[in-house]
User: Fold these one by one.
Assistant:
Number 1:
Amino acid sequence: MKMDNHILESKSVNVYYDDMHALKNISMKLEANSVTALIGPSGCGKSTFLRVFNRMNDYIEAFRMDGEVLMEGKNIYHKKMQVDELRKSIGMVFQKPNPFPKSIFENVAYGLKIQGIKDKEFIQNRVEKSLQQAALWDEVKSDLNKSALALSGGQQQRLCIARALAVEPRVLLMDEPTSALDPISTAKVEELINELKQNYTIVIVTHNMQQASRLSDYTAFFYMGDLIEFGKTEEIFRNPKVERTQNYITGRFG
Amino acid sequence: MTNSRKNRLKDKGFEYLGVACSLFGLVVLAIFIGDILADGLSRIDWDFLKSLPSRKPEKAGIFTAWTGSLWILVFTTIIAFPLAVSAGIYLEEYGGNGRWSSLLEVNISNLAGVPSIIYGLLGLEIFVRIFKMGNSVLAGAFALALLILPIIIVATREAIRTVPPSIRAASYALGATKWQTIWNQVLPASMGGIFTGVILAISRAVGETAPLIIVGALAYVPFAPSSPMDEFTVMPIQIFNWVSRPQHGFTVNAAAAIIILLLITFVMNGIAVYLRNKWQKKINW
């Protein structure tokens, strides 16, 4: 794997919630078309770091940040950055499935419609393609007009993935995407992530060590707002350099 | 008597007290409705609904009154709905927590407590005189719209607040702007609550008398309004007028008109409940 193909980079990022120093001087480069797992105990800042990349923290009132976050060399926190444009290239899947209370079709088409795309055939094709990519098409193709809320939790999460894929982002941020799912649905979503990394850069927050080691190419271990260790997943799991990482991944604390 | 027995007795005692309190209002309402029905039910027929006012009680009808009420309702809704819903959206979504929005908030809560006759005076000065609308349906509708504005604003805000943050987050994360998120996700999901508030507000407006008297609704209007600039009367004013007449026949007419007015209010409340239930069933977070 080449090491010079970086799509995202954080440069000395500090995040504060009021007085709480949530992320401390994080610098990290993320490889394109790879899966990077962010691990660490609850409250270590990994989800905050994930949301730094699509600026979803902007809605939190107490949030303050300094440092730079670059996507393909462009600072996404620059004044002139259009946040809605940014989010078209950096999609997100949340911890709990959050489909809109609309039909399955409308859910997937939403991202396209808000871009002003009106071409019905185009939307139709993209919806089908996205649902296929999310391995949901065969289960829902006959009832696309059914309410998305009638789907099972696992199906809803795959629908949310399809919805994110429909706008053809380059990066997919996933915040513990399987923590609300049963083992079978989890396996399906993991399989999906494995396929998606051919075409997408994936950053995934997970509490599940096996999941991190199974899925990711790179792993970053966070502890109390510090980036303790970051490197190839094999190395982190087989041969961590820091004792705390070792202790965490072997389950001695967490 | 043991302590636990005493506690159980107190428990029972409070339960019965509670039932009695809840029944009090209902019983009074039932007696009132029974009385009105006994007086007025036999008077209601198509002629009563179709007849114009008259000096003879047996010939008088409520045609001008209920058409006037209808005109007022329609225009009040047309005026109040967009204003109140937009204000509610602003306060909830854009207002933030600054000094300006808390000032607005306090004032809107105050508005809800202003006696309705004050709205009448306001309407008289602003709409009848300054805007020269005269004693018209439009002036009355504006006065009532002001009156129900706070109710709809509060309902709108509450309805918007029930939309889970995860839905907004999903919309933003797909690149939607704030307005796109409000228009496509937040508003459709909160429409049930908003409509419920609107209908409850309108059913309050339909029973209002004081502000309309001041704005210049007339007790006697020979014809039903045919444009928003026409003079008008409404059901409560017609009822008030009849009750104050000495002839027994008019008292019966008043009772009959009250039945119709109650019917309108009940139907509107029914619609509100129906909408709320329907929406709750459809959206199951």
Number 2:
Amino acid sequence: MNVLIVEDEKALTTEMELFLQANNFLCEICYNGATASEKIATNLYDFILIDLGLPDYEGLDLLKEAKKYNPEATCIILTARAAVDDRIKGLDLGADDYLSKPFSLLELQSRMQAITRRKFGLKHSVVALGDFNIDLTNRSISYKDLPVSGITKKEFDLVAYMLLHKNRTLTRSQLSEHIWGSVVNDDYDSNYIDAHIKNIRKKLNAYGTPDWLETVRGLGYRININS
Amino acid sequence: MVIVVLFVLLLPVLIRDINRKYTDNWLHRQKDKVLKTVRSQGIEKYIQNDEGFGSYNTLLKEEYVSMDVDSADRKIDTIVNERRLVEGDTIQYRILSHNFKVGKKNYLLEIGKSIDTINETTTPLQNIAFEILLGMVLLTILADQFYSTYVLRPLGRIIRTKLIGHKFPLKTPYRKVHTSTSDFAYLDISIHKMIQTIESTFQKEREFISNASHELMTPISIMQSKIENMFGREDISDEVKERLLEFQRILNRLKSITKTLLLISQIENEQFLKDDSVNLLELLQEVYDEISIRLQEKNIQCNIDVPADWELEQVNKFLLFNLIFNLVNNAIKYNKENGSIDIVGKLTNKQYVLEINDTGIGIDAEQLPHIFNRFKKFSKSLQQDSFGLGLPIVKSIAEFHRIKIEVSSDLNIGSSFKLIFPADSL
């Protein structure tokens, strides 16, 4: 899939490109609004990531142009200027999502996938993990056709997030940013992820052993799928 | 007041003193009159053949004049109170004695005025003076009243509207206090200018925090991305990854502080809309779902007793969620193992009051006034992984929604946070 990154911070674009390429995206980068405007008018993209704080261009104007010339593209606004007004304006102008800096690259990918799923209504997606089946559409887990009961929304979110980033170790802070990202609070080092994982394991263990859910000692957690 | 009392007490003494001086003057004048007569008409007018002269008026013997040959050879010129025997009556007089020479002879002149007569005038004088004084006191009080209710009214208005109850940031434009006194107008405009200065300083501080936290977001974002990318690489050893994790933890701390400061500054700059309607019980349930894992960790019982029909109008749901989340989070954080939290809704004076009571370590009475200050960390707070911005968030959000917060706490027994919602948010 083609991604256009419009962002004037070179160091940040480097990392975004690195990450997205590793996840099989084709990236083009614009460091200013003028070139981005040209590219948007001539090329077709699947994703357009726009930083609102461009030095030469009003980011929201760029969004309008994107909607005009690239109506199929998924537009995500990235900004450090998290003014509430901008967020509303951006979404009104047709942005598909809004990520305020600093954001996790994993979160960016997760949003991109979620929008794609939403937009194109991907076929019923069920992922098999050993004898467990994770139904991403209906947000449920089953074991050999037996529904696993008691999985909370948060717990399912964690499993789905790890599944999306399968075979990759996710740190506790990456996981907690995903499930508690919108809460602004006083703690900066929450270990509640451990408690959640413990609960998930307990609930799954009542049916079978979830050996695909690995604790990576000292680092975090990962879901392993051998393809 | 002290002056008035002192004056009343001193009044008799003063009047007596004035009266005596007046009498003495009168005596001197009489003396001068007699001496003048003696000089012009000769001593013979009064004394013939060395026979003493005496005269007193009326039956009451209020005054008398006497002149006699004086045998003593000394100068006398005194005024004293003395007793004299006049026609069988002993009367207390104030007497001027004066001796003088005519030819070769010494004469002694005495002029007297009875003390009773003097006192007779003293008493009415004292009374008059007292009445005048009383009148003056009354007049002063009246004048004061007039002064403070009418003349000083603009001053009171300036104090009431411009000084007391002044809230920052300034939302209403400058309104002149109506006064015809130029001094008050000057005071009014001076206070206004002072407030403007304070206001702009506040504004600058807010802008600074806002800009600083915004500016920090991009570098933090870059660092976070770099760490994430490095962490995902297969060729990096777990040992290095553990170091990266520490790095990430520190970065998270920086991120949380910056995000929180930004949130507070956005609230203070009123960048949030208040157009949500929220069911309080549902909101509490959402917080509960979000936070239940923390309750579970410490085995804390959380009871919610709030009427299901409490709706809050014109609020910001995101902010209210964060307000309650932070309060409940604190109630967990500073609670004991197996403790409990009671969330109770009470309708008091037609206002929703939400109480969050915990069985935690409590707050020192002397620390209580400072708990809403930014970056205030207390030695008692056992948790090391907080940076003292939880309650400042709560305070900013509460102020934004005009929610009053009351805190009470007993050390080692627990704390109670009361949220009093404004009557018009129902």
